[in-house]
Specification:
- It contains 7 helices and 11 strands.
- By secondary structure, it is α+β, with helices and mostly antiparallel strands.
- The chain has a single domain, classed as PPM-type phosphatase domain (Phosphatase 2c, domain 1), CATH 3.60.40.10.
- Helix 1 runs antiparallel to helix 2 and helix 6 runs antiparallel to helix 7.
- The longest helix has 22 residues.
- The chain is globular and about 50 Å long.
- The protein starts with a strand and ends with a strand.
- Its EC number is 3.1.3.16.
Length: 255
């Protein structure tokens, strides 16, 4: 497999409060971790929350081994809880950072499966190479999304709801938080998109699918997505990770 992380400040924001990473495990063969985080609380708090979340999960990942690989879903659930504790405690002990928080979407990719853990409204999408189906596999933790799942509003109403951006869960805002954890199969040629809402709020699922299918190279697909989000206004930071099943390459980060 191969992966690429890209981030862009957008056209309006003065600071980039997103963070992310993609890298292979040093000791567990053919296994990679992708993380995207969208900080909130304003500069510098949002920056700290997102970067700290990525750094902490990366540290825990480096300590994992073959035993943890037997249950990557359980590992994600336990370690996202540890990340939340770390971010919350840091914010409470630094008055200038109190109230900071972040979304986190993390994916562990193996040869046969990928494991997803998310808190907030950063998303994970799966493009099935056999069927061409492009599907969001995470559930947004926002007021509008909860109302939609409860059947109180339509999907269209959720997309334009005034409380669309109000999160019902985030990392670091409370002493504890439960993540959603999912497990899926994938095969050669499949692709994943992990992104912050600076992308998913500006570019439709149909356009994201079209770009992923139409670009062979991950870098060109990622740049096309960022270009489209900026073309549509670019009011927020835009971050994404693209992962392709098929051949092994080095993890790449760019900004």
């Amino acid at each position: 497999m191969n992966g690429l992380f890209l981030t862009d400040i957008g056209k309006v924001r003065r600071y980039n409060e997103d963070a992310g990473a993609f890298f292979f495990h040093d000791r567990v063969e053919d296994t990679a971790l992708a993380i995207a985080a969208d900080g909130m609380g304003g500069h510098q708090a949002g920056d700290v929350a997102s970067r700290m979340s990525v750094d902490l999960l990366s540290e825990f990942w480096a300590e994992a081994g073959e035993e943890e690989a037997k249950d990557w879903g359980g590992w994600l659930e336990a370690n996202l809880a540890k990340v939340n504790t770390g971010v919350y405690t840091h914010g409470q002990s630094h008055p200038e950072l109190q109230g900071m928080g972040t979304t986190v979407a993390a994916v562990i990719c193996t040869e046969s499966k990928f494991f997803v853990g998310n808190i907030g409204d950063s998303r994970v999408y799966h493009l099935n190479s056999s069927t061409g189906e492009f599907k969001q596999v995470t559930k947004d933790h926002s007021v509008a999304a909860e109302l939609f799942r409860a059947g109180q509003i339509s999907e269209t109403e959720a997309d334009h709801h005034p409380r669309k951006h109000m999160l019902t869960k985030a990392v670091g805002t409370n002493p504890s938080v439960a993540s959603d954890v999912f497990e899926f199969g994938w095969t050669k040629g499949d692709k994943l998109l992990i992104c912050t809402d600076g992308l998913s709020n500006k570019v439709s699922d149909e356009s994201l699918a079209r770009i992923m299918i139409g670009h062979t190279l991950l870098a060109s697909a990622g740049q096309a997505m960022i270009g489209e989000a900026n073309h549509m206004g670019g009011e927020d930071n835009i971050s994404l990770i693209l992962v392709e099943h098929g051949h092994k390459g080095g993890g790449i980060s760019a900004s």
